[in-house]
What we know:
This protein is an alpha+beta fold. Helices cover 37% and strands 29% of the residues. The protein contains four helices and five strands. A hairpin with a 2-residue loop joins strand 2 and strand 3 (71-78). The longest helix has 21 residues, at 34-54. The model has no long low-confidence stretch (mean pLDDT 86). Pfam families: HATPase_c_2.
Amino acid sequence: MKVTIALRLPRDAASVSVTRQILGAELEVLGVERHIREDVQLMLTEACSNVIRHANAGDEYTVSVEVMDDKCLITVTDTGTGFDPDQVSPGRPLAEHGRGLQIMRALADDVRFMNRPRHGAIVCLEKTLRFVADAPGRLLSAH
């Protein structure tokens, strides 16, 4: 089984919620366990929110999600100035902002950041999925 979603979005806060809902619906239809679905949605939300907060005004960004068997790969690409994830200070534990990279690293099985100075950044998040009994995703993965 391979399911792919690709979205080109305006750098607008409303796009984060829409993207989160689309991915959540896809994972729910496939029968992904609720807590895994919520982790994936939160990872996506953090990656997209960072684009909204830090990329250049007016830029678009893209989100692609690929579910292959029991793996979910999310790629968020912006066209901003890029960033060095090693230079980002960890946010305070109770802070409202500044913890996105920490949250992504905590929830994802694998996180990769690719910096493209003056051409933006790419964030890749991978998560192993688990399905409820008799879930369409489980049945389709068996073929």
